[in-house]
Amino acid sequence: MTDDAAEPPDGSDPPDGVQDLEYDNEPFTYDGGRVDPGESANIRYGISETYLGDPVRIPVTIVNGPYPGPTVFLSAAAHGDELNGIEVVREVAHDWDHTDLHGTLVCLPVLNVPGFLAQERYLPIYDRDLNRSFPGREGSTSARRMAHRIFRNFVAPCDLGIDFHTSTRGRTNMLHVRANVNNFTVNRLARAFSSNVVIGGEGPSGTLRREATDAGVPTITVEMGEAHRFQRRLIDRALTGVASVLAEFGCHPDSSVHWPGWRTVIDADDEKTWLRADAGGIVDMKRGRGALVEEGEVICTITNPFKEEDEVVTVEAPFTGLIVGVLENPVVYPGNPLCHLVGLSADTRIALEREQTTERSRSEL
Ligand SMILES: [Zn+2]
């Protein structure tokens, strides 16, 4: 675990061979069109066809700024019922002033259109996971063909990317970044997004962030809140993160990078666990998303329909940590996840306690 609890990062030098790139003022081109510097375009781009032979088209907004700079993609709803990121991407694309933009924004608010229409996580046919199908392949399954059209046209040409998700239906996540922090630029991107919590790891193969990063487009995932909702506070925090990333990478050179006040970076070896139910029943969750819990503290109880006291199962925190993800739908089978707990160092804990003394403010994370 690395902590930036006490003070902002010092902007350490990149390793040899990694430098800020020089950019030219170039058109953004995709299969079928181009968007010149100083112009923007709203596109409905065909990635598949329905049973009726109609096109399945994803909405894409390209904003090519008047000044040279990196090309950044912002994507959401690779899982069709994860809505918070849709509003983040739409507000960046359509509500922000881009007259001073250095570089290009490729805004992809709804990647999984069939899932979005059905309000389901997966592509409805055969329950394929679009976010395990990247970078996709021509001549392969329907999911991989869709992924290929998206990836080749709107991901591969970019320099950086941010893919927005929420927790799976029935649970909620604290806003946090998932990123391969061993990659210099991914780490820089993850920190620039200015979330309090960054969880390291390269991600499963087939995910957009893993495959884009492997293809030379450093990409992070942002997890925020729950499915089927727009959660305004989380959306606003994510917009702050996007603005901070654009400042860090020179897209808005006059803006400054946001410092979240405290930050903890959880590596693969650090303490983190999904606590799972050992009994079926009805869950009384005592602590919420973003809560700091002490080792041995009761996080929830599981009871049967009769609330029989000798049948109550008490779930305690195995170590002191932060609740990053938690059950919302209060029913479980044995083995179902209850909460995602990550360990905190003493320094981070002090910074967190100093900044946020009430459970209420933490539940807004
Ligand atoms: Zn997701």
UniProtKB/TrEMBL annotation:
Its cofactor is Zn(2+). The keyword Hydrolase applies. It comes from the Archaea. Keywords: Hydrolase, Metal-binding, Zinc. Residues 68-247 form the Succinylglutamate desuccinylase/Aspartoacylase catalytic domain. GO terms for molecular function: hydrolase activity, acting on carbon-nitrogen (but not peptide) bonds, in linear amides; hydrolase activity, acting on ester bonds; metal ion binding. Signal peptide: none annotated. Residues 1-36 are annotated as: Disordered. This is Deacylase.
